Amino acid sequence: MSERLVFPSLRYPADGSVLDGVTIAVGSSDAVAVFGPNGAGKSTLLRMIAGTAPDVERDQRVAYLPQSPHLFRGTGLSNLDLGSGDTACAIDLAGELGVGDILDRDIARLSGGERQRVALARTLSGSEPLVALDEPLAPIDHADRSMVAGVIRNATASRALLCVTHSIEVAAAIADELILMDDGQIVQRGLVHDVLALPADERASELVGISNVVAATVVDRSGDFAVVDLAGVSLVAMARAAVGTEVVLRIPAESIAVLTEAPHGSSYRNVVEGTVEAMLPRGALVEVALVGTPGLVALVTPGAADALELEPGSQVWFGVKTAAISVIAER
Q: Do 27 and 96 lie in a common domain?
């Protein structure tokens, strides 16, 4: 088991109105995302861990990237030189992040996304046991987020990573574990795909929605479409990843049609057969969870559940349109 970095009973300010006695433990090679609405206390949590919150002392060495990182006057290269890490490593990371050929430019001439990549290269090049990132992909173009997330994961593979984000897609692309925060407290913690598929309670499901986030491998492709293997089930998704690439897919539960007969000639290009494991109330809807791997979940109305006579043990087919499947990361 990896050594764990523990930050116990974090409270801020003294009355706990922002953070109310939160304890965070992160393994030395864990990648953890903290997700929650505005005002949940996420950024304050990170600042306390990094030691930048007022009247807070830092006990651990932390490589910290705030939501608005400060870059100094001069070139991108001079900013990498000013970091606490290995400059040669930072230059290599800048290349992987797509800004290696513009490091001679003045920082003031770079776009927000380019400045963020320089700041990321500087932060990731250190040797601190914990890397703390606040909204690291927010300024990055959507088309490049998967690539940048991959660089972050690779650069922190042997260190603890704690990432604050308001995007479920970013959380799933960067992290393996997810912490849900609301009103200064932890609502739920677990593996990303478990938390998204099975929120602990109604408040947790309100925070994250309900989605299937699953890893699959590209086994074939044609143009903009790829055939992926999901635990022995073949699905077609819109993806440009090369054959052999592992991808992370997101399939919203509400986009899945639940059928009690195998579809023939339907509009569902993807069909997953399974057995209902559980029927869980989710506010005005019902979550239908399949047994085993890939263990997908779907959302239906109570009326539909009654009409289909769904219950644990029922044999069902999940119909999924190709357009409903999004690739949120390549690994």
A: yes
User: In this structure, are 54 and 105 located in the same domain?
Assistant: yes
Tell me the average pLDDT across 143-172: 93
Alpha-carbon dihedral 9, 12, 15, 20, rounded to 10 degrees: -40
Same domain, 204 and 230: no
Vertex 192, ends 47 and 243: CA angle to 5°? 115
pTM confidence score: 0.85
Whether residue 133 contacts residue 163, with contact meaning beta carbons closer than 8 Å, is answered with yes
- Three-class DSSP category at 252: strand
Q: What are residue 127's DSSP bridge partners?
A: none
Which of these, 141, 136, 211, lies nearest to 166 by C-alpha position?
136
Q: To the nearest whole number, what is the mean pLDDT of the chain?
A: 92
Centroid of chain to Cα 233: 23
Q: Is the pLDDT of residue 59 over 80?
A: no
Total domains in the fold of the chain: 2
Whole-number Å distance between alpha carbons of 100 and 93: 8
| CATH at residue 168 | 3.40.50.300
Q: Residue 212 corresponds to which tokens in the numbers above? A: 């299937």
Mean pLDDT of 50-68: 85
Examine the domain organization and report whether 133 and 237 are in the same domain: no
- Give 214-245 pLDDT, tens digit per residue: 999 999 998 899 999 999 999 999 888 899 99
DSSP codes joined into one string, 190-247: EEHHHHHHS-SSHHHHHHH--EEEEEEEEEEEETTEEEEEETTEEEEEE--PPTT-EE
19 - beta bridge partners?
12
Q: Kind of pairing, strands 130-134 and 62-65?
A: parallel
Residues 81-94 pLDDT 10s: 987 679 999 999 99
Owning domain of residue 142: 4-208
User: Rounded CA gap, 230 and 233, in Å?
Assistant: 5
Distance CA 262, CA 198 (A): 26
